[in-house]
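User: Working on a comparison across species. This one is Xanthine dehydrogenase family protein subunit M from Rhizobium sullae. Can you predict its structure so I can line it up against the others?
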Amino acid sequence: MRAFTYERAADVAAACASVAGDPDARFISGGTNLLDLMKLGVERPAHIVDISRLDLKDITQTPDGGLKIGAQALNSDVAANRRVRERYPLLAQALLTGASGQIRNKATTGGNLLQRTRCPYFYDTRMSCNKRSPGAGCAALEGLNRNHAILGASQSCIATHPSDMAVALTALGASIEIAGNRTERRTLPVGDLHRLPGQTPDVENNLEHGEMITAVMLPPPPAGRQLYRKVRDRASYAFALVSVAAIVATQDNRIASGRIALGGVAPKPWRTEEAEKTMGGQPLTKETYDSAAGVLLQGAQGYGHNDFKIELARRTLRQTLAASVGQA
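Assistant: Here's the predicted structure for Xanthine dehydrogenase family protein subunit M from Rhizobium sullae:
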């Protein structure tokens, strides 16, 4: 591991200023992802700014009836919070499918959203990876790409984003509060946080260097039943092959409103308004669910080993929608 200097931040402004002033500086909190990457030589920061003791752990109700989750709130605490379990069960379900109990006890809300891909070619410094070394090529394109993207990828990168929490928050319409060197904090929808790779897969999100997520803002819970389903290779401690976050409200045996987002299939949580519009007013039938899946998966492309994901995503979405309206 490369030698680095360490600093414990006194407040948010000081932390942002310290990282912004050094291109080789990184924030650290739970460290469940960054430390692994540093040991492997993928991340080589010269300076570490510890933000774990900042006062950003509270989970509070907002004036509009939503919820504010501090960026330092632990994944296990968020999943166990009464307001989250009662009003946003989708979020609690997603968190409890992620990682192990030990990791959830260390991982933070902000860190979960900003964790980096688990693509094995990204982790192996002997392999070519445009995300780790721009211009090096993408070994996953011709390699074992069973876990890789079928949507939103490019010839430069086919890695997926691993966060279950981000998928649930995208379906719930959450936003993030961001602090940096600007005078006022800004907000950004969670669905706009992560970027598609295009020709610059090394630029993974829309935060500026030195900007920090300080909170997640949840709007009032939407109408309908919330359900998160995750398909993976083993029952625990595995990243999603495909995951589905669904929120469906019904009236007179028809879908009154629906929200759907996919995980494990793209470099970011995958949600489209067009797919959700196809469900509005439609009967609770297999044809309705398949129609939404067809729109959501429009343009899906496999790269050999992961061809099966297209049909897996279609079936998982159909089953999750059926379960969300009590048909399974």
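For your comparison, note: The chain has a mean pLDDT of 97.

User: Helpful, thanks.
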